[in-house]
Structure formats: structure tokens, C-alpha cells
Amino acid sequence: MVGPNDLIQYLINVTRPFIFTTALPPAIAAAASAAIVVIQREPERRTRLWSNRQRLFNGMQTLGFRMTPTVSPILPILVGNAATASAFAERLLTHGIYASAIRPPTVPDGTSRIRFTVTSEHTTEQIDEALHALDLAGRETGLL
User: Fold this and answer.
1) 112-117 and 74-80: which strand pairing?
2) Residues 6+ away with beta carbon under 8 Å from 95
3) Mean pLDDT, consecutive 10-residue segments, the chain of 144 residues?
4) Which long-range contacts (CB under 8 A, 24 or more apart) does 22-30 make?
């Protein structure tokens, strides 16, 4: 930032959007640009993504997990209690699934969750294995 020091200090301390922004590294911008080209050339990836997302979402609901309404490949399972969310994440890890607990202060008290992200490159078998692990961990922690 260029300018008188008093102005710079004022802007840093008063303009919240400035505090939390930084320029993207050139490599990230190049990767994003390349990703757009892939999306345009390979529309079947998007079709697979939404199919995989629906399979995982339906499976989670069928198992009985509390889900948030979403139209995203990011699927949060609402757990509530932070300690239970941590225990659930630990049990998932023992079953081969790494999914960290999202707890306060990241989310409000009583709304802890585990977020899963599915991609176009996940296979049906991988999704089914994840659902099996979710079933086991859910029963072991009393969520199911």
C-alpha cells in the first residue's frame, strides 16, 4: 500500500475487507484458468460429479444422517455437539476416511459437523466404501 503512514494504518485497521484479502499467486490463477479449459472440453466430468454427489447424498440420507440442504458437492453431516463430531471424525479415520470435524468457533455452538466433498473422479466403489465407513462410525458414536 502506498500513501502517508497515518492513512495506511487507518485503512489497515478500519477496512475489514482489506485485512482479509491478498492477491492470488500466479500459479493458482494459471491452475484456475486451466481448470476452466478442462471443464469446457470435458463436460462429462460435470455429469459424473453430480451423479457422484447424488449417490453420496442419497446414501447419507438413507443411513439416517442429518443433512443440510445443499446444491453443492460439499455435503455436511450435522452432528451438533463438538465432542461428538470429533469422536465421529476419529472413528471415520479408523475406517479409512479422513474427514475433519468442523467445530466452534468456525461454526456456531451446537452446529458442529463433518463436511464431505465428492469429486467427478470418485468411483462408485469408493463412494459405497465411504458410505459403509459412515454407517460403522455413525453406529459406533451413537449418531445412527
Assistant:
1) antiparallel
2) 132, 133, 136, 137
3) 80 66 81 94 96 98 93 95 97 96 93 96 97 98 96
4) none
Q: What angle do CA 117, 25, 71 make, to 5 degrees?
A: 25
Look at residue 76 and give its three-state secondary structure: strand
Angstrom distance (rounded) from CA 91 to CA 138: 8
**pTM of the predicted model over 0.85:** no
Q: Is 74 helix (H, G, I), strand (E, B) or coil?
A: strand
The fold of the 44-140 domain, in CATH, is: Aspartate Aminotransferase, domain 1 (3.90.1150)
d(CA 144, CA 20): 39
Q: What angle, rounded to 10 degrees, do the helices at 124-140 and 44-63 form?
A: 20
What nine digits make up the cell of 85?
463430531
- The domains of the chain are located at 5-38, 44-140
Sign of the Cα torsion 94, 95, 99, 103 reads negative
